[in-house]
Predict the 3D structure of the following.
Amino acid sequence: MSDSHRTLYDEIKDFLEAERQVYGEFSVPELKEIHDEEATVVTPDVAEEENVRYEVSSLEPEVEKTTEEKIGSCNTLEELRELCGQAEELKTDLENTNLVFGVGNPKADLMLIGEAPGEQEDIRGEPFVGAAGRLLNKILAAIRFERSDIYIANILKHRPPGNRNPNPEECKNSLPYLYRQIELIDPKIILCLGKISGNTMLGGENTLKSMRSKKHNFRGIELYVTYHPAALLRNPQWKRPTWEDVQLVRKRYDELGGKP
């Protein structure tokens, strides 16, 4: 007990002693009892303190994931489609375009990759649905494929202005999403439709003629390149070499045990 408290106690004791002489006996608490009461300190439960610290820490803002982390966390095509729908970097300079994600068998052994959606593809949100798409259907049927057997996507997921070719910046922004799409589908063979698609996937600047009729390797997946169906509509003389290319793809597909 401090000196000031002791002096006050002595004064109170003297006062009470005088009162006792006037009014008779009554009890006065001992100094030790007062000291014990002073020493009593109520402390919070340790577990309660831990809970408070946990609750405070849980209020801290989460660190924003990087684009790479967001893409990598997509475990299904639907999750990736939803992320692509939110990704501003996938859009081109053309305003109010629709997402053209991809269509077909999500576990296809053959995946076709075009270049960019056109007007009809943008309207319907599906790749290869215009005149080029109808020609592609005929090519697929000639090698015993239905569209539902395979998976079709594009390098870009939004239509560029004037149906122009994808520019390098657009391809750069789109490729991480396409790569994840390929990982989730896990095809045995990729067929690139057009020079831009082939060079973008292979990371080169080659002529289409030099890329045709041969097997390429894309991350352990066999990759082939042929003419884009739209090019065949303008240049019918390229239909014969395209037929040779897709026959080669069908042959390798069967050899690799592709289903169906």
In short: The mean pLDDT is 88. DSSP finds twelve helices and six strands in the chain.
